[in-house]
Design brief:
elongated; alpha/beta; five-stranded mixed beta sheet; Dna Topoisomerase Vi A Subunit, Chain: A, domain 2; Alpha-Beta Plaits; Cytidine Deaminase, domain 2; 3 domains; 24% strand; 390 residues
């Protein structure tokens, strides 16, 4: 029974909320009886309360009353799945009841609440909460999430902190974003980020910046998508507190990123210790002897600069190319191709997964920007990394 009542409430559109006052002592069953009895025949068969309840157009009527000094007052709740006109008529009908048993009474409808609007409000509030949790730092506390987001997501002109270009909230915010140059700061400010400061290059890092970072709950270093950005990160992690790293797409700089890409890069931030370990492995790899690719491979690799990060193209037997394909759809793209694929050109680091895709599809050659440390292709696959070239 309780389950049926719950299901009925979930299908209701409106809730009639009325207050009741009775000059005498009555019980809940007396009030319910008066509602059904005195409304019977008043509105015709189509709006008879008993028939409406049997057909679930009217839900279970709730009567919450209390008795004090010989008088009763309380609240009546009537859920309705009818349209707003019919619901309003029911509300008007119960307002005509002037006696309950031998006692004078008064029923006044306070409001007819749109249940769906209430649910929409709940959805909006829940969505706001989920969004705040998504964009807030993992170390942030819940005491000032809204203030924190509001303080960060407001555009304002750049300022200076001991000669370093910065946003206005670097001292008041609990988190800090550190980037390389002043133009990076200005672009991040235009995206609405106010807790950002630059290092003015990878030279000497000012002690004031080091002290500032060490006071923050969370510090994100935003580096360009090149070796220079990675070198800056390795320098900073040795000097000051760094919690996360957000890197621009390969070959791109923060000062030129559009707002959408800025948001995506920050959302994909990586723990600093893990990032530093990974690029240290990459550095060791780049120190291996350089290789000289063939002219054909060099020509194929030129396509890397024309596709987005973590996108690939297929080169067919007639040297024509496919449209860019995301890494997650690469295997399906090769399988759906009706032509023989000579090579895969990928704008990103080659890993075992990429090697397996190429090997399974019997593609003889794959080209990427680098090869993940410790991972090698099968003997029948020719793998090239542009980072290894002379």
């Amino acid at each position: 029974m309780a389950k049926n009542q719950k299901n009925q409430k979930n299908t209701m559109k409106y809730m009639i909320i009325a207050e009741i006052k009775v000059d005498g002592t009555v019980q809940r069953k007396d009030v319910v009886g008066a509602l059904f009895g005195q409304c019977e025949g008043l509105l015709g068969d189509d709006l008879d309360l008993r028939k409406l309840q049997r057909s679930t157009k009217i839900g279970m009527i709730e009567v919450n009353i209390k008795s004090e000094k010989g008088k009763v007052n309380g609240e009546i709740l009537i859920p309705s799945s009818m349209d707003n006109v019919e619901t309003a008529i029911i509300g008007a009908a119960i307002s005509t009841i002037e006696r309950i048993g031998p006692c004078n009474s008064k029923i006044k409808v306070k409001e007819i609440q749109d249940v769906r609007a209430t649910k929409r409000t709940q959805v909006v509030e829940l969505a706001k909460d989920l969004l705040l949790r998504l964009v807030s730092d993992s170390s942030s506390t819940s005491k000032s999430v809204i203030d924190e987001v509001r303080s960060v997501l407001t555009t304002e002109q750049s300022q200076f902190f001991h000669g370093l270009t910065c946003g206005p909230n670097i001292e008041s915010s609990s988190s800090l974003i550190v980037c390389e140059g002043r133009n990076d700061v200005r672009n991040l400010l235009s995206a609405g980020l106010k807790n950002v400061i630059c290092t003015d290059g990878a030279g000497e890092i000012k002690q004031e910046l080091i002290d500032l970072a060490n006071t923050k709950e969370s510090v994100i270093v935003a580096i360009d998508g090149d070796r220079g950005g990675e070198m800056l990160l390795l320098q900073l992690v040795e000097l000051m507190k760094v919690d996360y790293v957000a890197q621009a797409p390969v070959g791109q700089e923060w000062e030129l990123l559009p707002n959408k890409t800025i948001t995506k890069c920050l959302a994909m931030k990586e723990p600093a210790d893990r990032f530093a370990a990974r690029i240290s492995d990459d550095k060791e790899k780049t120190e291996t002897p350089k290789v000289q690719p063939t002219e054909q491979i060099t020509d194929y690799a030129e396509h890397i600069s024309k596709i987005g990060a973590r996108e690939a193209i297929l080169i067919f037997e007639d040297d024509s190319i496919s449209d860019p394909i995301g890494a997650s759809k690469l295997a399906a793209g090769i399988e759906e191709s009706e032509r023989t694929v000579l090579a895969i050109v990928y704008n990103g680091q080659l890993s075992k997964r990429m090697f397996d895709i190429a090997t399974k599809a019997k593609v003889p050659t794959i080209i990427g920007t680098s090869i993940k440390s410790g991972e090698e292709p099968d003997s029948e696959l020719e793998a090239w990394a542009t980072s290894d070239w002379t």
